[in-house]
User: Fold these one by one.
Assistant:
Number 1:
Amino acid sequence: MRDFYMDDGVSSVECAEKAIQSAREARQVCALGGLRLHKFVSNNKAVLESIPPSECAVDITAVNLSLTDQPLERALGIYWQLDHDNFRFRVNLRDQPATRRGILSVVASLFDPLGFLAPFLLKGKAVLQEMCRNGVGWDDPLPDGLRPRWEHWKADLANLENIKVPRCIVPAGFQRITKREIHHFSDASTRGYGQCSYLRLENEQGDVHCSLLMAKSRVAPLKKITTIPRLELTAAVVSVAVNDMLKEEINLADSEAYFWTDSQVVLGYINNEARRFHTFVANRVQRIHHSTTPQQWRYIPSDENPADYASRGMSVNDLVTSSWFRGPNVLWERQIAPPVDVNTQLPIGDPEVKKAQSLNTQTVQYSCLSNLLTKLSSWSKVIQAVARLLRRVRKDKSSDHSTVAEHEDAKCIIIKDLQSQMYAEEIALLRKGKQLPRNNRLCNLDAFVDHDGLLKVGGRLCNSSVPNSIKYPVIIPKEHHLTKLLIADCHEKTEHQGKGLTINEIRSRGFWITGVNRTVASFVRRCVRCRKLRRPTEEQKMANLPSERIDPSPPFTYCGMDVFGPFITRQGRKSYKRYGLLFTCFCCRGIHIEMLDDMSTDAFINGLRCFIAIRGSVRQIRCDQGSNFIGAKNEFAKAMKEIDTNRLVSFLAEKQCDFVFNAPHSSHTGGVWERQIRTVRSVLHSTLSLSSGRLDDSSLRTFFYKAMAIVNSRPLTVDNLNYPKSPEPLTPNHLLTLKTTQALPPPGKFVREDVYARKRWRHVQYLAEQFWGRWQKEYVSNIATRQCWLTPSRNMQVGDIVLEKADDLPRNEWRLAEVIETVVDKDDLVRRVKIRFGDRKLGKDGKRLNKPSIVDRPVQKLVLLLEAA
């Protein structure tokens, strides 16, 4: 019976009569519709007596409302105490486990549609939300950090029986109401946000009464990053929605509504008229403006705002003793104080305000035709555009293609306008019959102005029978945009055949470009298609020698490595392929060769073990990025994980070596060992030619060692070889024979007499010092100069468009790529880059369908097409 939820001062007898009449009408209407209403209950005995006992929810004979009986009627979890006309709450807790599922069951068991227990329920919802944030499963136990909060809240459920909420929002005997007002309060915190609505009544005597109508509390969302101002604004929107619902449901459409908040930022958003907000704030401010006006919003301090309880949570005992149910003191005053003046100006730099962008538009007025044509991209389009304009000027509205005559007229107008802009002084002097001064740029061309007003070259071909367009070419400047379009058109007509043919095409068309050689050469140099067809690969200044090649060190401490072959050997009736594994020392340039049974990783590791066993430990090995070498490095890395960590340092120092890989397809960086492979091949060819038939494995290994001995006997320097008194040429064998298992000590001070000493070690040490001294003087100084790539070139930059050179493909099939990363050496030069290949297969939206291919390449394998902007 919604109509009698408020009493406007009528007597209880009149109320009872209206209730009885309404009950009868409701029963009749429902009976016509096939529904049977029963289970009526009322706190008025007269109403209950008017209803048949079978239709009542209580036994009328057993209820004595005037005595101490306190019957409770339950509807959807809310209890109605008939004698005092109060709403009560009673919770029958089941034995639910302390899991996410059990906590949700307990929290959801409290049915509170009007939000009387909103502050208390917020604390239970906060525990459940914290479990969701931590990713706790539905049946996982409650974390220890949340258990005390949950146990305290669960124990407080028993105190809900102390809460009594009057059902009637108008007290008995309040007399006739003269004024109704609805006051909505909103607030937010980091834990949640909420609102509460109060009805303020005023009678004829000026008495005031306030009661809680409805409230809501919600936890702060987890998925969306929200700030306190956003939550405050969201709470204000909830107040507006509650106001619309209350006015419609309980007939308060004529009541004045007021909205209170303790956020000055929200008031600034609502009162804003000049600035624009981002989507989140803009949508909610629009919702507030749709139902309310800025004059309805007021400011209240946080300590007086009852909605603060709904946004932070309260226990049951604090809720009973607070002003939650009766409203704040400001509503109980006979005259509400005027709104407090607060600063509603939005602060500078508010993140919700869109940044204002001021655009400065500059109007450029073109005074000549040639400047208007700078937006066109080809010479033919320029001619066609001007030809169509001429047709319109001549009142010709036909849409046919322009004729040759129209093209010639358009060309004449374009050139005349261009010359009037660039050669105005020269044309003025020539029309007056004067000669150009000697320092003029057109003086040596014998320029003149013809009957069409065009500036042309005079020259010495007056008596020639060639056409006048070639005899007297038109002069045009070299730096104008139209000149570049003309050069591009002639260059395309000659199929990108270079500077000479392009200049001939320009001359044959009757044009004379000042400084044509440099202008055309500059254009051809920047032409992308010409670069794609003929541009050489990039070069960079030769890098400095690494310290491993110029500092004395034990032989084969720092070396390079490569594989060559194959060689065919025979075992019985079967033939096998064998390969040679070559090591070359960076310091003494000696070589060591091991035979490999195949190109597998296992065979390479065995060859490396044999090399270390013979030549001693190796500190660093450089090599190309062959698949067998990569596999060996991966297997070494896997084996390293199985080594005892306590012995790792000593194991690396004594046994292991570092693998340093060059960039893929950069064989020029491994010239130290590539050159030795060529020498070994020449020695092997001459040696193997002496053997008849095919070799077996042992014979091939013998030839490898013989070739190794021959190559190690070569002289490192060729200076002073013709002098009879010159010392013996320095060879790698001189240094290899002094190789020991331990590193050689640095050269000390030894004299020649030590050769005749009885102590053999001093004899060896003297020879070592002589050999290493000659190595520094003769060999190191010989390799100091660069043989090629003498000057630095432009460094590759991120964003450059390049072609990757592929020796096994024709040039027009080389792949297009973009530089995405550069490797800068110690001398600030780029010799290695990382490129990303283009993809011809794209989706409908222009995005790649496959994962992009990214590789490392040396600059010597790339052709630069377009420089990065």
Note: The chain has a mean pLDDT of 78.
Number 2:
Amino acid sequence: MWSYQAPLRDMQFVLEHWLQAPEAWRRSLVFEALDLPLAVQVLEQAGRFSSGILAPLNSIGDRQGCRLVEGRVTTADGFADAYRAYVEGGWPALACAEALGGQGLPQVLDAALQEMLYASNHAWAMYTGIAHGAYLCLKTHAAAWLQERYLPGIISGETLATMCLTEPQAGSDVGLLRCRAEPQDDGSYRLSGSKLFISGGEHDLTNNILHLVLARVPGAPTGSQGVSLFLVPKLLNQGQANGVACDGIEHKMGIRGSATCSLVFEAAQGWLIGEVNRGLKAMFVMMNSARLHVGLQGLGHCEAAWQNCRSYASQRQQMRAPSRPAGVVAQAADPIHYHPAMRRVLLELRATSEGMRAIGYWVAHLLDQAEHDPQLLARQHAGQLAQLLTPIIKAFFTEQGFRQASNALQVFGGYGYVTEFAIEQTLRDSRIAMIYEGSNEIQANDLLLRKVLGDQGQAFDLLLAQLREESRLGAEMPQCADFAAQLANLCSALHVLVGEVRERSLEDVEYPYRAAGSFLQLCGLTLLALAWARAARVSRQLPEDDPLRAVKLETAGFFFSYLLPQAEQHMAAVRGARARLAFI
């Protein structure tokens, strides 16, 4: 009763028209051989893998979960075979540098791949989700010999990686961690301590697992300034077991097919990545990649929910609707998608999923530009924008993934609450994304205090410039002029609001923390406004007989009429946060 098909037509629309990515690829020495037909072929193959291999395993993983016997984890039926097919397809190497054995394709195509993986089988994709971040971390910070030894396995998919931060007493505050790393005469370290909530900490998909572990060396400063990062393999060079053991797996609300492990390190051999006491600097290369991917989980859940409730609503007949499309004869009972309440939910799902796709791919495209654009200033601005938008992507997308899955469940009525229809699994699976890789509350604080107020608004001014330019272009097209005007008004209101927040923060140090959550929601809605203003404008480039042209304009109209008014509520909440919160 649950299915998934990759939304390839909309993905192509975003790449070709919304981003105009092929033009950017032609300007880049790295991607100049890539064109749109080749990119579409890659997405088509990824779609076949996701819908044909991963999606059928989604409910199996939920029912079976993982099994831990004598320290070894067995994944659900079909998971290991699916991973072998993933490796044979070359997917781990997609966005890795050609010089290192990768395919050298842009991160925006990897973002599309990740959306498909998470939409079709979130639990399975947890095993592969951190791999690209680990690749970037080692490529940026590891010693040359470590890169030579371990990068090829990550790129080929022969090995998978984990990120080991959390300890029982140290969750979001990694400065509280106690895991120890004792230096050895041969230049290695011996790590001892416990970690928990480690996704893929033990499994049967690969023989070796590379654990990237935060720990303290002797004499390290207290707090986060005394944390170092180490590579600790499950198996050492000759295949002998290292001092790493899985002593438990969590039984969870969702993503049950993902092995969430507690690990014990007993004098496990590892090697320093980066500098001593600078582990967070190295780890955040991986964390930032992970936060974009977690945001794409929210997009994947929203898309899967949209597809399945749309299909159900077209078949389920209940009562006579007050109106019908032209030419449809009245029946004793109509498909529920004719009823206004259901049309409202379905349109919100479509507007949210397609809008988030444009913004999510934009951030991935910005990462490509930040690394490969031939112009220095363009690289700098792309990097600033990507950093600004990352916490919004992580927090806003994951909240929408959960919210829209809940809305979709409502379309199913009572059937949505039973396991046969599987929308309840989407709801359960989506909830974790709001918590891990930095809770959404932390993302909100990071956005407002560090990314907006912290740099005197430089990055935020770049975003406002994007909004103004889009409103200017849209104003020149009659069918888009109203959308452009609303976007321009929102841009002006945001500029004023940030000035007010900055001024108030000088008087009340806690105020931006109280306002941060509402401010992030406002920014997320603003990004959707940008997405739909541009989508409406560039859809005019499509042939008049292309159905997508009318759909984009129709959905943009729905967004600006029904969803954008929420911006006023968020602005009022930011201003209302001047009232102090009582201590409980």
Note: The CA atoms of residues 366 and 382 lie 5 Å apart.
Number 3:
Amino acid sequence: MTEVVSLMDIDDDDNAGDRSAKPINKGKSGAAPSDGKATPWVEKYRPQSLADVAAHRDIIDTIDRLTSENRLPHLLLYGPPGTGKTSTILAVARKLYGAQYHNMILELNASDDRGIDVVRQQIQDFASTQSFSFGVKASVKLVLLDEADAMTKDAQFALRRVIEKYTKNTRFSLICNNVNKIIPALQSRCTRFRFAPLDPVHVNERLKHVIEAEGLDVSESGLTAFVRLSNGDMRKALNILQSTHMASKKITEEEVYLCTGNPLPKDIEQISYWLLNESFAESFKQISNMKGRKGLALVDIVREVTMFVFKIKMPSDARVQLINDLADIEYRLSFGCNDKLQLGSLIASFTKARASLVAAAK
């Protein structure tokens, strides 16, 4: 889904300037990594061109067309982590600048460089200088601000003015997870693209490519586990794949869950059985024993049980109430509330749901 706010044609004027000015690159590196065994697969298999980006073809095709027509606007790419935002804009930069890539972009991670001084010094200095770059397809430079939602409000207001002042020779690309933290004045100056969580089909295809390239032995159930645990986050999927490979030569579903510390599906089925059929005391005892024996986190159990609730046949109002109760428990656990108290709340929530099931059956 794309939301086009404004388009600004790239000026065709020849821009004079200082070729010696080189950008300071921080945050995620755009350089092609080496193929050494120590290279994180997230970087080793990062898309090098727009055609390699796993999903969001509508967005990619739109940006590709604007780039080819020298009509690239300021960009605001937002959405959950691991959905291809940074990879997309780095691929755009490679297409625009080729071998001059590192001389034409300033890459900053706004979670580290988030104050107004960065805007007034590094960004403004880079944007205000013009460069001779021979052999590139565009005469404008590119400022890439990753995690822009971490910038202070003062820095964002200062950036707004910089964007206006240096549009002729510089384009700005803002990347963030939470677009609501970007001030409206910045949003209105950018073309916005939302990157949704990746479809399981695209995650599956990319993982198969990496598995084949690395010569891994992965079972079908293991591949399904990777896709399920990634939740549409390609970075997470690749990190889990690499860490599981380091722990085991033969990658099965069980190995994936053991490596990540997530409860196995069969464990969740067993816990759900206790919650729906056993007494409060028995459920508390059995779940506590399993937590201790397998080293499971209650927050992971609650999250997985919530997904299991959708498979249970029960009245819709009872399902909604149970899911809300589980969300409250997960929220309290995120603030470090006592595990035993929250386990009691979990069992009590299912006790109420069980009463609704019995009443509906009658």
Note: The CA atoms of residues 165 and 361 lie 69 Å apart.
Number 4:
Amino acid sequence: MDLLELFFIVLGAAVIVCYGVRLLLFTRMLFPKMWFPLSKSFFTSMGEWAVVTGASEGIGRAYAFALAEQGMDVVILSRTKATLDQVAKEIGASTGQRVKVIATDLMEDVFSEIEDQLRCLNIGVLVNNVGMLPSFIPCKFLECAELDQTITKVINCNVKTMAKMCRIILPAMENRGKGVIVNISSGVASIPFPLYSLYAASKVFVERFSQGLHAEYKDKGIIIQAVTPFGVSTRMADYQKTNIVTLSPEDFVKSSLQYIRAGDKTYGSVCHIVLGWLLQCVPLEILYADSILLSLQNYVKKRRHPPLKVTL
């Protein structure tokens, strides 16, 4: 056996091992209860309180309920006090846990006031859920209505708010040596996504920021994870009918919490894991073809309900 033949044998073996490991890691995600088990006291062991932004409806509301059901008291933040009060009443009635309401516009400079209201709480979990989709109907960047204002709103809501809330909550977690931070990104951040360019780019920040923070603080006992769902039936998604791909907020959150110990990023459910894998396997030249983008626009227009405001 000459040297060149040996080289190709070793190279082939390395490729097989590499793809075997990747397959194993992929299959682990299909069985989270087996690979990433959580004790019944996992969340309460992190701290007494959970903080959830954008908690008046949709995914945020579902996280607030789910964490209260795990025995945590919850702080819920959003703009509409009446809606928050109703959510707080329902959580208290169904779980018996305490609920603190903070009605505030997170796109404004309100973070010093929020920090004051959270200062004395033993916060074990933070869910940064609040987000804004500029338009449910896909459109090119320059065709977005009120573009200058939209740019500012998307960055403030999807980027600044998440970073500021981490800045407020993370120091106490570091001091205690434990905590969980969940930052809600989006499946569209898996690739550069035409017609949702601004939104997708803002969610890439969420993903990369979360992964960087996790690397910085995992040795301190803190889990920081980006959750990147595709279809969830919320106001932002125009309340699409639930099916195998589009999940209810409650089903998605229940599934995503099983992946808390799965690393710095998760799609949150088996069907969305498969979708993410498929999306990244398709050549971008195909996805970016004009006919495909036009078909996407037409498909969304046909499926949408009567116009709804999409800022959460």
Note: The chain has twelve helices and seven strands.
